[in-house]
Amino acid sequence: MLIFIARRIGTMVLTMLVVSLILFLLLEINVEGVAIKVLGAFTSDQQREIWLEENGYFDPLPLRYARWVGNAVVGDFGESVRFKVPVSEILLPRIWSTAVLGFWALLFASAIGLFLGVIAGMREGSKLDRTVSVGSIVTTSVPEFASAPLLSALFVFYLPQTIGWGLPGTSSMSSGFDWVQLILPVMVLVLYDFGYIARMTRASMAEVMMTHYIRTAVLKGLPYGTVIRKHALRNALIAPFTVIMLQINWLLSGVIVVEFFFAYKGFGSLLLEASLNQDIFLIEACAMVAVFVAVATQTLADIGYTYLNPRIRFS
């Protein structure tokens, strides 16, 4: 087990290095372009050359890459062109904000998806199964840029006029953290996300329920609830576990639409703002954080397989 974990961590580090090299070559191999993005298009050639020399951009490319990686490891991505402060001062609070939003969205989406998927898989072909399947397909077919306006029209404009109660239409947290302002963004994410988990859980649960050991346990007279909890559920959760772990990466970097629509100051809106303003150092930091989360969650998913089903062996 320890050897497997060490291999996965080694693969994770190697992946990070490969992606960092590609990112570095794409964004920093053209030193003149870097100087223009940082200093502006109306600076003189002499000003750019002075800045490039002061920041070591005339050093050999391998040395520049090694220095860039070393600084990234300790969290030093330079100074934001847009905000004029170190990137870490902006990045960390935004990551935390998205982590709060993502935690509640993933918690509710996983709970709803697993519950509906399990009960649908237990009764394959029933009306309940068909209802859950159709509902999951419908919700996952409606993207966030469509569901966000629809829910806002309902909870921000229609309900306050009819029953005198509604939800805030923005989540800027301008007056401090407010749980109420999280409801609509979380609702949009859950509405789009739980269907994936429900469908995967339903398919996995239906397959497990048809296996010989489940039929044998039922024929032996074991209580149906015991068969589900101790025999079926653990094996059925392997596939949904993969989906849930993959959603963590999506919730970090894929919530740009939701955060922008509700004016939520998170990682997704920061990445969008950095791209629109060509903030090269902030873009690099956001990209590396997103890659780290992606490979880390995938590594945790692989390790989690062995705990859900110890019979699984990795070569």
From TrEMBL:
GO BP terms in the entry: transmembrane transport
Recorded topology in the membrane: Multi-pass membrane protein
Membrane-spanning ranges: 12-31, 95-120, 132-159, 179-198, 237-262, 282-308
Keyword annotations: Cell membrane, Membrane, Transmembrane, Transmembrane helix, Transport
Primary localization class, coarse: membrane
UniProt protein name: ABC transporter permease
Lineage of origin: Bacteria, Pseudomonadati, Pseudomonadota, Alphaproteobacteria, Rhodospirillales
InterPro entries named among the record's database cross-references: MetI-like, MetI-like_sf
Naturally occurring in which organism (per UniProt): Pelagibius litoralis
